[in-house]
Amino acid sequence: MPRLKICGLTRREDLLCAVDAGADALGLVFYPPSPRFVDLPTAAALAGAVPPFISIVGLFVNAEPLQVRATLAALPIHLLQFHGDEDEAYCRQFERPYIKAARVRPGMDLIQYAAGFPSAQAILLDAFVDGYGGGGKVFDWALVPDSLGKPLILSGGLDADNVAAAVRRLRPAAVDVSSGVEASKGIKDGAKIRAFAAALRATGRAV
Ligand SMILES: O=C(O)c1ccccc1N[C@@H]1O[C@H](COP(=O)(O)O)[C@@H](O)[C@H]1O
């Protein structure tokens, strides 16, 4: 079964619900224009509620390196997620494991894109949307090659109704969901989180 990341958490109760549902990784958004943005005090309170052996992922979009460094100094971030136009030299300067998002559009060479990030732990595929991400939009899965030469994290408009089909088709190492488990932007829905996790678990038996 693919691992599960739930992103865009802004409230302690949502974070605990995600943990309870079996999330392996929890995403905090440090991109100020996002409705899911968390400031450092909020992020610190959320991080303090995360049990051992669950990863905290810090998501950035074209951030000033100083902002990333200040966040790393203040919080127990296990993994960085770069979701903007960052190049490999930018991503690796922090000397932390990171995942690099590709915003998928028709005609894009995803193998070449992934080859541009040899230091990345994984490549995350998301739909191309205005605002960089968290748009709840599914991209055309036919654009995904058999192998990227790196673990694949699938995101982009996933929800309890489509995640099993996505996993059967693309066999990602992990899936990442935000909008598909929300009641409104930045506010998660416990029932949707549980339904998503159950649909994902079912693929472990039925792929
Ligand atoms: O969540 C956000 O607000 C966000 C903002 C800027 C870049 C990425 C963002 N989230 C990531 O977007 C994808 C897809 O999310 P969705 O499930 O389609 O809403 C996911 O990887 C989030 O981590």
UniProtKB/TrEMBL annotation:
Biological pathway: Amino-acid biosynthesis; L-tryptophan biosynthesis; L-tryptophan from chorismate: step 3/5
Residue ranges occupied by any N-(5'phosphoribosyl) anthranilate isomerase (PRAI) domain in the UniProt entry: 4-197
Enzyme class, UniProt record, top EC level: isomerase
Annotated InterPro entries: Aldolase_TIM (IPR013785), PRAI_dom (IPR001240), RibuloseP-bd_barrel (IPR011060), TrpF_fam (IPR044643)
GO-annotated molecular function: phosphoribosylanthranilate isomerase activity
Record-linked HAMAP family: PRAI
Family the UniProt entry places it in: Belongs to the TrpF family.
Protein's name in the database: N-(5'-phosphoribosyl)anthranilate isomerase
